[in-house]
């Protein structure tokens, strides 16, 4: 009897050790799998950002030039005229000026934004299911808006200094009195001459603007996709999925809604980024030096002065090239992200 008890004890001990070993092995694999999944998600987001922004780089530069140009020295009267002028005076490289800096900013920004949206969505969905007691509950449009806003704030804050110097590099022309030689030179010059706080000038209107912009982008896109997949009102579903054209259309609608609401804040952000740059007045006109200084004490002061001196319409300067840019840019970003994740074998739907 004693020997049988010993054998049973030894057998139980061996089983316990084997089980612990299996759990330990699974525990080692899990972080590795999670790390790879995170890397793939970040990579997909980065590729999506780089591809979408490069595709519309000339329109992005034109938008910024229209936003910040001196109202007393109009150089760009419209999108088409402005693009022709840049082509004539600066050539092909002029159309893509600042795109390298833009990509250096947008690639990590897009990577963090898409990844943050997925994680925020999962967290919000988990809390929503816990609160409602319904394990099959799905994200509502409002909850998607919250997840998108969270992702936008995190991504924008993490890469804002790059956005600030990108804006300054973009408005430089061949006739500008002072030239930043590149990203590193612009960052070091701003830090030396204006201090570290200057790198976050315009951050507040950016935060306020990113909530409706990025939040609505994700909320509208995901909601449209879910509605089309579940109800299939127009017969667009093929093999239980949407075609690339349909997804591009969803992204275009999402981009249009988001940018239309948040655009005035983008104009104010750009103008505040020029404050403190001693050559800003001359740079934005592209014609020598100017005695007129660009000075705002804050976001509300920038709003007041812009409307008082240039009218309400000034808050929508550059809207045409931005609209033409945003529609394909957002659409391309969403579809590229999903396609890259599909190629990498990563599940991207968070509502399941």
UniProtKB/TrEMBL annotation:
Pfam family, one: Mito_carr
Record's keyword terms, sorted: Membrane, Mitochondrion, Mitochondrion inner membrane, Repeat, Transmembrane, Transmembrane helix, Transport
Entry's localization field: Mitochondrion inner membrane
Family according to the record: Belongs to the mitochondrial carrier (TC 2.A.29) family.
Bilayer topology term: Multi-pass membrane protein
Location, primary (coarse class): mitochondrion
Annotated Solcar repeat ranges: 36-123, 139-227, 242-343
Record's protein name: Mitochondrial substrate carrier family protein
GO biological process: transmembrane transport
Superkingdom to which the source organism belongs: Eukaryota
The species this protein was found in: Arabidopsis lyrata subsp. lyrata
Gene3D superfamilies, sorted: Mitochondrial carrier domain
GO cellular component: mitochondrial inner membrane
SUPFAM superfamilies: Mitochondrial carrier
